[in-house]
Design brief:
The protein is of the alpha/beta class. The protein is built from 12 helices and 11 strands.
């Protein structure tokens, strides 16, 4: 006997049908990934790797569109205003998504609630680097020196992950490395090589080539474990002794979309990304950047963001960083 479907259930089924069909047909035209930073950094590198593989899988172009400005807020605002159809995605990371809400006082959106978590891609550490002839070859040497002399470190700007990692380092070590903010990591690294500053905290992918060519000296990575492809670089925790015992900064990177993306479409993209994250080619490409693939479900991604909003909001408050 046929099962009776009540009028409310029938209406719900009809309402969901277009979204299911939309997910089944996706994508039927080019997809754009907005990277709210300049080319050459970690977000850009990971977006280009996964974008190429998604394009091959979907048989549609995946275009990487760099829209930097205001600490990532320019690109984020663009994505928030885009149609929630999956054709405009945001290359996000913990810095823009979990820090900017606490850092910027007048945002036209809420980074924690105005975007749909779609798929995590990877975690990757930041790294503390100096010139090849830096006198600070270890964390212990740096801490000892910072107790008696002025040592400067550059970052990508006030309130950036680069800046806040330095503040966390200071708090753990009981020293005061002097922060020098820049408009992005690239000019900070340029001044490092020119001798204007002593050190830089930056993402590992942004200096991977310079480390391999010995143009920069890596003192330590910020994650609890060594990076697989850079396992000669010690972690801050292991190199710095007991005071750094639980030091672990290993930011996530992932794809987000406009808030009202249909759940079926989010799940379709999530499934496709997770499948690629298991492929040897993506694993190897990420490893070359110092990144570890991170596959999660959308609800897990959302829970990670919620926890990081609390964690990094506290770090921002402690640092006193603020942007009007």
């Amino acid at each position: 006997m046929p099962r009776f479907i009540g009028p409310l259930a029938l209406l719900a089924a009809i309402a969901l049908t277009p979204f299911a069909a939309q997910a089944d047909d996706f994508p039927s035209r080019p997809v754009r990934i907005i990277v709210p930073q300049t080319p050459g950094g970690a977000s850009d590198a990971l977006a280009r790797i996964i974008g190429q593989k998604l394009g091959e899988k979907w048989k549609q172009p995946v275009v990487i569109d760099n829209r930097p400005g205001a600490g990532g807020n320019v690109g984020m605002e663009f994505v928030m205003a885009a149609p929630a159809d999956g054709y405009t995605l945001l290359m996000s990371y913990v810095g823009t998504q979990a820090i900017n809400g606490a850092l910027y006082k007048k945002l036209p959106f809420d980074p924690g609630t105005d975007f749909a978590p779609v798929a995590t891609l990877a975690t990757l550490p930041f790294v503390l680097v100096g010139k090849p002839d830096t006198p600070y070859r270890t964390v212990a040497q740096l801490v000892d020196a910072a107790k008696t002399r002025r040592i400067t470190y550059g970052s990508a700007g006030n309130g950036s992950v680069n800046h806040l990692v330095g503040e966390m380092f200071n708090a753990a070590a009981g020293v005061k490395l002097v922060h020098v903010p820049y408009r992005g990591a690239a000019p900070a690294l340029q001044d490092l090589m020119g001798g204007q500053i002593d050190l830089v905290f930056t993402s590992l992918p942004s200096v991977a080539g310079s480390i391999k060519s010995n143009a920069l000296f890596p003192i330590a990575v910020t994650s609890a474990q060594r990076a697989t492809s850079f396992n000669n670089i010690p972690t801050i925790a292991e190199a710095g002794g007991q005071q750094f015992g639980d030091f672990d900064v290993n930011p996530w990177f992932g794809l987000m979309g406009p808030k009202r993306m249909p759940a079926e479409l989010v799940q379709k993209i999530n499934n496709d990304v997770n499948e690629l994250l298991r492929s040897k080619e993506v694993i190897d490409s990420f490893a070359a950047q110092g990144a570890e693939p991170l596959a999660t479900r959308p609800e897990q991604f959302g829970a990670m963001l919620k926890a990081d909003l609390v964690k990094w909001g506290g770090v921002v408050k402690t640092s006193g960083a603020s942007v009007d």
